[in-house]
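User: Please predict the structure of the protein below. I'd like the answer in structure-token form so I can feed it into my own downstream comparison script.

Assistant: Understood. Taking the following sequence of 174 residues as input:
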Amino acid sequence: KRWEDITPDEIGDHFDITIAAFSLGMKDIREAISRMDDVTRGIVALYWFANETPWEQDMAALWPALHGKAYAPVPKGDVLYNVLHQRGIYPNSVVFPLEYHDEYRDFDEALDQCRERFMAGPHHDSILRRFCEKRLVPIPEGVSFRGTSLRVKFWWHTGMCRATGLSLPDNFEN
């Protein structure tokens, strides 16, 4: 069930901590955040992308050749921060790097995955083959797409948390 569709009555007792990790592709992020805040008596933590991910870089490079238009990436942490700010939430934040490793047994398995990921048909194989030849890195187990990006964790004490004095778990800020 989507956060936007949940009512506090359905939850019953409130959560001490609510975590949404890389799952914020929601139709109404404002409403989802409002619901998370409403059903949490402690801390809400959101993990999201802080910059362009390696797979978005790949999409931006290939999408025009495959689909005849520019790729539209998902909003990043700056947009999420602004939504929180508009709701009167001034979250703590931690930015951290994340290594990306997408591993396959062989070139053909990677090519099959690219067809699916890029919503490409067999008539796009020459474009995808050139892409895979440039981007795949050999590893002992096969081949891998690799890259790095930045992630951000936003977290805040809900109004109920401040009212009840609930404290943070050890090392939550890291």
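That's the full token string. Strands lie at 15-21, 40-49, 92-104, 137-139, 142-157.
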